[in-house]
Amino acid sequence: MRNREETYGLIVETAYKMFAENGFDKTSLAMIAKEVGISKPAIYYYFDSKEKLIDFLFDEICKEIMDQYAFTVEDLTVNNFEQYLLTIGFQMIEEQEKDVHFNKIFNEYILLATRKERYMKQLNKIQKGYFESFSMLMNHGVTIGAINQENVESKSNMLAMVIDNIGNFILTGLELDYKGIWKEAVKSVLLSVRND
């Protein structure tokens, strides 16, 4: 028999998958409870409404995304900067390919954000943080001489947008060389230094 903590984790995991596959509107707490193997009234012990469960998952996903772009620059040098950029993208691509539900549920939240300001504010905060993190990273690259100063903000925005859009294409199931695309994007921002 599962304890409360295990049941709670199973509810969250099951809701994540079912919301991703069926959407928020077509998934009920009763469906989640049935899949978990508990009664509908029992699920209310953990989440007293579907909206609370949706909110909880949203907050957890936002934390996970923000952790992804917590870049560290202290140990970066001209010699390892390119590899660091490549590794960031490769890790994000691998995570996206491994978790087939992430983009689906995230798109549900984007749709929800068009109707609910709380979600829109948080999504804007995430996007802004994403661009700021890439900007900080690329400006550090300028400081250490790994990147040319010219158009550094555009270069950082381009990398942020490329990796974000790769995630969207992975969602469609289109099989492309995503790591190769990321590698070319990274090379394009470093090329101007090599040509100087």
Automatic annotation (TrEMBL):
InterPro entries, sorted: DNA-bd_HTH_TetR-type_CS (IPR023772), Homeodomain-like_sf (IPR009057), HTH-type_Tx_Regulator (IPR050624), HTH_TetR (IPR001647)
Top-rank lineage group of the source organism: Bacteria
All residue ranges annotated as the HTH tetR-type domain in the record: 5-65
GO biological process: negative regulation of DNA-templated transcription
UniProt keywords, alphabetically: DNA-binding, Repressor, Transcription, Transcription regulation
Gene3D superfamilies: Homeodomain-like, Tetracycline Repressor, domain 2
PROSITE patterns in the cross-refs: HTH_TETR_1 (PS01081), HTH_TETR_2 (PS50977)
DNA-binding feature ranges: 28-47
SUPFAM superfamilies: Homeodomain-like (SSF46689)
A single GO molecular function term of this UniProt record: DNA binding
Protein name listed in UniProt: TetR family transcriptional regulator
Source species: Lysinibacillus odysseyi 34hs-1 = NBRC 100172
